[in-house]
Design brief:
With about 350 residues, this protein is an alpha/beta fold. The protein is built from twelve helices and 14 strands.
Length: about 350
Amino acid sequence: MPEPLLEIEDLSKTFRRRVLASAARGGIAGADDPFALQAVDRINLTVERGDVFGFLGPNGAGKSTTIRMALGLIHPTSGRVRIGGYDLATDRLNALRKVGAFVEAPAFYSYLTGRKNLEIFAGLSGRVPDALVDETIDLVGLRGREHERVNVYSHGMKARLGIAACLLPRPELMILDEPTDGLDPHGIREIRELIKRLARQEGLTVFLSSHLLNEVENLCNRIAIVERGSIILQGRLDELEKTHRRLRIQTDKPQESAALLRERFKIEARPDPDARASLLVMPNGHATEELNAALSGAGHAVRHLAPEEAWLDRLFLELTTTKESSKSSAPMAGESLS
Ligand SMILES: Nc1ncnc2c1ncn2[C@@H]1O[C@H](COP(=O)(O)OP(=O)(O)OP(=O)(O)O)[C@@H](O)[C@H]1O
Ligand SMILES: [Mg+2]
């Protein structure tokens, strides 16, 4: 039975931006003019126990604003948030009891050691025994470095310390806003593996925001993509993959191959916008072997035929480009294929 841990219903936030009247309408300089900005627009999503839920979107899409509302740090303009069945607006303490979170970069005392910082956090989360602080240090892989000052920690170690702070109250749900922000590829991978381990071995449910689609593809079982305050795609990653991930095909005769696939299999091929010599096709239930045999049988030299990499990235770019410019996807123009 799926058990919802975080339920977000019709959540919206409008900020009253204050802009100089002179900038807004050429009026008297210095006077303020309220200006509405809808940062979050009727978002609905449910994080179930056991999920690693990726909340994706470009800069300014409304991820942090949604997370702030989900943590009760700012009030929604409308809509509601329930955590573990408790309404955040009416039952705040019960709702937040089971949550560990960090929003953007967590702040530490840089002249104190990692352990001392955790002890301070432990004090804030109620009484956390020493043994639990030690266990947390082990969990995030900071053993051996815990007695060093935070100002000598790398970004990756600070990120792990941030996660350790979230783990201290032993939450059921961890909410992380851009946990890999500012990390290099090694750091990103480290945090990804840590979150995976916490989810698998400790049974932690995770809701995290990111704009790294490929990272999330590696980590999450469920995603929502938000753009300009609204969710444009949501679902289980395996189901989305079935309906959206294409095959990449490279042959020596891309145009003839596209024609063959259309005539014989009713499969529409399109050139990959990032690799012009490749075709992207939805196999529509046909096995890759079947397509390969047909192309080879017709004398096309098949150089590559495999599921596309970075499909979520491609899908996201397509969805957002289409929305912004109302352009359809790239046509099968002859000159676009080599
Ligand atoms: N306190 C605020 N007052 C006014 N506008 C705000 C406030 N906080 C956020 N915004 C605006 O709301 C929109 C969404 O911001 P938000 O920080 O939620 O985006 P984000 O998806 O987290 O982006 P990023 O990936 O850059 O962190 C932006 O246009 C931002 O400028
Ligand atoms: Mg943000």
